């Protein structure tokens, strides 16, 4: 058996080096097209649907899924696939036909900016702070996962691995903005698909085929009897009971993720037409059918082959190091790097967009009566991109967690605010009577409710990680609060919500809003 830290062959090293240099050159090449804040943050609103769709997929199935998601599959089994089937495709279609047209036509740079126009500036800032905090934490997590992968495969020092990623991703994201991020994502998706399929085939061959893999896992004991069950019982000790999967994931978490997550929605906001924005999301939904096969099957196969891995998040990196031959190991290594870097560049660019649009932009207008110039925003956006990358690198080591899979950690963090954000966004688009005070109360009190429920989880819910149930109750609570407070406060003037609610937005044919 190969040592996980075995040195890559000459061919592997050549493939990896070519990939890294190619991505760096390809990404920075787009920097010459960036001349304004609009170019940097929403790609000049010129992205075609195929680039949008591929970028959405590669951002969504990045490091968290290839390493964290596969690690959760190693521990909990096929139920993890629900995050891409039940937890993605229906929500992506809803996003394409209900939410994306409204937000794209508004001309907003962020979802928080749209909420600010629909409700008030306090809703915008609070929503922005929530997403900025979460995306920044996610950025640090992605860097930590990168270091774990490089350490497992090559034995590289954790700090060196983190800073290598910072330098490569930082250069092309600072220079090219969203255009560079999206177009490098297109290349990275192709590499990820090829590498992922190769890993699935080889790990199944190593396990002796599907039936042999199933038999080996069942032989490990009763704790793994449900490893190939898609919908687990309500009282399962895992974080994935069927009730939570169907209602918490399928209705709340997934919908909120694809309609309110800036790292996803920002690609559609850069579309050249409304049709491209919607088609991009639908195109991405098609690819999501394939994702569980190339992401979670290797995680399950790793359990059949190496049931003594202490940290599940190291399961797939161990497979890569031990079963792939020379050449394919380099290709898979490049595929993982593509997943890792696509996550990092997405969260980095989205975090900066939120800060510059919803925090700095509002501050500038409050104290100076008008917004910052396009050139000033571009310079500050690039500077903040570099600063945020360095801060994420310095804090990445703090997210080491041996007791809880990183995927569950991230989903728990999501559950704190996804339900309230979805409730406020849904009512804002579909109900004219929703008011600024209603949205404000629904969002703030909803987050307070979800945090409280999460801390009382063991006493209220059947799972020790009740994030799926927390998201449902947070959504319902925020709906109720927003409706009640809205009915008790004065309706918004018709001219304020024109073009932002169902029935009026269809009159608009092109994106408006800030340049």
């Amino acid at each position: 058996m190969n040592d996980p830290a075995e040195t890559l062959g000459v061919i592997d090293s050549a493939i990896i080096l070519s990939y890294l240099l190619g991505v760096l050159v390809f990404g920075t090449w787009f920097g010459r097209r960036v001349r304004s804040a609009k170019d940097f943050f929403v790609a000049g609103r010129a992205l075609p649907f195929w680039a949008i769709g591929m970028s959405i997929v590669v951002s969504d199935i990045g490091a968290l899924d290839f390493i964290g998601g596969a690690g959760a599959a190693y521990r909990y089994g096929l139920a993890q696939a629900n995050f891409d089937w039940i937890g993605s495709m229906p929500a992506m279609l809803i996003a394409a036909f209900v939410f994306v047209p409204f937000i794209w036509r508004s001309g907003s740079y962020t979802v928080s900016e749209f909420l600010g126009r629909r409700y008030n500036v306090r809703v915008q800032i609070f929503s922005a702070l929530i997403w900025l905090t979460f995306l920044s934490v996610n950025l640090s997590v992605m860097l930590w996962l990168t270091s774990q992968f490089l350490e497992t495969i090559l034995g590289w020092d954790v700090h060196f691995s983190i800073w290598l990623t910072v330098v490569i991703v930082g250069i092309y994201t600072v220079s090219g903005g969203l255009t560079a991020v999206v177009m490098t994502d297109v290349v990275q998706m192709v590499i990820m698909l090829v590498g992922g399929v190769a890993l699935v085939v080889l790990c199944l061959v190593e396990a002796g085929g599907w039936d042999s893999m199933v038999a080996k896992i069942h032989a490990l004991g009763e704790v793994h009897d449900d490893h190939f069950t898609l919908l687990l019982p309500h009282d399962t000790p895992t974080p994935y009971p069927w009730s939570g999967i169907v209602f918490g994931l399928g209705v709340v978490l997934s919908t909120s993720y694809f309609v309110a997550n800036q790292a996803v929605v920002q690609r559609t906001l850069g579309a050249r037409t409304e049709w491209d924005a919607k088609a991009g999301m639908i195109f991405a939904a098609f690819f999501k059918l394939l994702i569980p096969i190339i992401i979670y099957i290797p995680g399950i196969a790793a359990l059949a082959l190496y049931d003594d891995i202490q940290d599940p998040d190291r399961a797939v990196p161990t497979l890569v190091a031990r079963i792939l031959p020379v050449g394919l190991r380099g290709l898979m290594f490049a595929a993982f790097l593509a997943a890792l870097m696509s996550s990092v560049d997405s969260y980095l660019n989205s975090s900066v967009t939120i800060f510059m649009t919803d925090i700095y932009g509002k501050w500038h207008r409050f104290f100076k009566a008008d917004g910052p110039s396009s050139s000033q925003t571009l310079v500050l956006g690039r500077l903040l991109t570099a600063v945020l990358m360095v801060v994420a690198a310095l804090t990445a080591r703090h997210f080491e967690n041996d007791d809880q899979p990183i995927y569950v950690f991230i989903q728990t963090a999501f559950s704190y605010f996804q339900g309230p954000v979805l409730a406020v966004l849904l009512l804002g688009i579909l109900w004219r009577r929703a008011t600024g005070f209603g949205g404000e109360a629904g969002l703030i009190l909803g987050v307070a409710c979800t945090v409280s429920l999460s801390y009382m989880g063991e006493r209220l819910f059947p799972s020790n990680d009740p994030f799926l149930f927390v998201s449902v109750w947070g959504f319902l609570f925020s709906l109720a609060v927003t409706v009640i407070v809205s009915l008790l406060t004065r309706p918004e003037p018709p001219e304020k919500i024109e073009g932002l609610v169902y029935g009026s937005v269809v009159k608009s044919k092109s994106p408006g809003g800030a340049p």
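The CA atoms of residues 92 and 225 lie 32 Å apart. The chain is about 70% helix and 0% strand.
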